[in-house]
Amino acid sequence: MAEMQRLGPLLAGWNRRATDTSSESDADALERDESLWTPDGEPGCEICGGAGYVRVSRPIGDPDFGRVRPCECRRAEEELRTAARLQRLSNLGPLSDARLSEEEASQNSGASACDFADVSDDEPGWLLLIGPPGSGRTRLSAEMANRRIAARRPALYFVAADLLDRLRAAMNAPSGGDLSYALLFEHVRDAPFLILDDLDCISPTDWAREKLFQLLNHRRNSGLRTVLVAEAADLSAIGLQSFLTLDLLRLELGRAQSGGRYREFGGMTEDVLSQYTFDGFREQGLGGRGDAENLPASKRAVMAWTEEPGGWLTLIGGTGVGKTHLAAAAANDRLAAGDSVCFAVVPELLDALRASYRDEGEASFESMFARLKDVDLLVLDDLGAHQPTEWASEKLYQLCASRYLRRAPTLITTNVPPESLDPRLASRLLDSQRGVIHHIKAKDYRTDQQAVVITQSRRRPRRRG
């Protein structure tokens, strides 16, 4: 009885007629739907009275008679959920917030990229985006994807090497591998709008060439809109030069902005890095949910370390809690202060080191490895996400051991406890005289899942040998 008394005024209000002034004419007057007893709209909504749905007033016999649809107050929420779903499916990860300013989007290369993203998916079209590292290739790619998502249109972004790694992992999975591989390949192959970044940075094995050819050949024949991102307009090394035909739109970018002081592995270009600041860090978690246990303290700790970096700073936490944002903000500040900086996603860094064995001159393995050892600030993002092969473990140990001995500023992010890493690395991470470990506890920014508690023992692991 109390519940009926509480809902009485609401139910009475549903009998009144209302007009949808945003999209309905007088003939399409809206009627509050009395059959929907759950008031899940806006309580004060003048259209639905809190029901969340409305019914178009139609005479009996009209095809729309009795049909309900979401009210305007509910449509806004559904649009936000749709945008969040498209964002998760886009694979943009830390690039989800990378956008151009209005001025940048209206000029030169920015305008061309935005125009390409805005064209209808029914119209076939391919874009080749080329430029040296730091020229803004990845930032333009992220703008195209985020622009489409903002318009409720799907977009899929992949670094080419990362896509191939995922396909290999799906094929080699102990159970259901073939099915997982088929679903992933079909998902990428049939995406309405696909961006393949760093296409010329893959290891050109026969298997990689074959898979990329199959993928792009299907998209070309199906007229699916595709963006290819590379350093130069020469894809002959990976067997894809035949796709660079006359009907391909080409967009060439300029030189890097930092005079060679910045290097990245994994997509955090200088333009993208500039989007990550301490002021832009969400201390209360996504949307201010209040579920961030220690994000403000984490921000202060990283800011303090960044002012006078020395030794190691390790950020441990679950996926999506803001580790990469804080690391990028620190790198951004040190780059602005004049330091040389390298931001490396660890699996991508190891792929680049492997590939450099076949190169010569400045791109050789020795030259690249020497720069990693000597750079003023090295960020190793997502340590522990790599395949722990003997070669990978050895190279990471050599790199970290060199910087550890010199107390060279090194910022590490990981979502695994130190004890799960190579004992030689774990011992250095846990050395309180050379560095600090900060555990971030918060909900996942992207999926709203509860914080993941990463436990670690109090004992320091023993070194091997």
Task: Offer a quick outline of the entry.
It is built from 15 helices and 15 strands. The chain has 465 residues and is an alpha/beta fold.
Break the fold down into its secondary structure elements and pairings:
Elements: H1 2-13, E1 17-18, E2 30-32, E3 53-56, E4 68-70, H2 72-89, H3 102-105, H4 108-118, E5 126-130, H5 137-150, E6 156-159, H6 160-171, H7 177-189, E7 193-197, H8 206-222, E8 225-230, E9 249-252, E10 262-265, H9 270-273, H10 295-307, E11 312-316, H11 323-336, E12 341-345, H12 346-356, H13 365-374, E13 377-381, H14 390-405, E14 410-414, H15 423-429, E15 435-439
Parallel strand pairs: 5-8, 5-9, 6-7, 7-8, 10-12, 11-14, 11-15, 12-13, 13-14
Antiparallel strand pairs: 1-2, 2-3, 3-4
Helix pairs in contact: 4-5, 6-7, 10-11, 13-14
> Share of helix among residues?
25-40%
Give the number of helices. 15
Q: Profile the largest sheet.
A: 6 strands, parallel
CATH architecture designation of the largest domain:
3-Layer(aba) Sandwich
Could you give me the name of the CATH homologous superfamily of the largest domain? P-loop containing nucleotide triphosphate hydrolases
SSE pattern:
HEEEEHHHEHEHHEHEEEHHEHEHHEHEHE
